[in-house]
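Issue 218. Parser rejects a valid record. Input:
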Amino acid sequence: MTQHWYIVHTYSNFEKKAAEEIKRQAQIQGLNDLIEEVMVPTEEVVEIRRGHKVNAERKFLPGYILVRADLTNEAYHLIKNVPKVTGFLGQNNKPMPLRQSEVDRILNQVQEGAERPKPSITFEVGEQVRVADGPFTSFNGTVEEVDEDRSRLKVAVSIFGRATPVELEFGQVEKI
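Output the parser choked on:
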């Protein structure tokens, strides 16, 4: 058996339901040996909601799921006939397997996202922000440096009419 990874197109926001249904149908029809793995590639992100940090999940490929399968006619029709699945990614209605380098890159992104949640908000140098937490709460400032790896910013805050550089975490500031 030759198992490859395929990208399956689904309705947006129904990726998890479609993945679960593919697994369930494979179990019912006795095709577990053909469909080895079904996954929705996601990563953990940190969002700020009402002033609090909240861990959330973000999909890498909204509207798509990955399926590792030996794509026989039975497996193809099982996946294709699952509700909320619109088809496979490929050419001329023929599913195209992913290259191993693409699969490794996606799986690596999923692993990194699980280990180190990323902030969902990005900042740019020169952008105006308001400090939402810490000793400089409610002060406005300008972003001077962005350190994505440490999730920190250097912000020039105006204190007594003089610009003072302050180092803050992403979660301590909000965009204006």
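Fixed in the parser; the record now loads. The first helix runs from residue 15 to 29.
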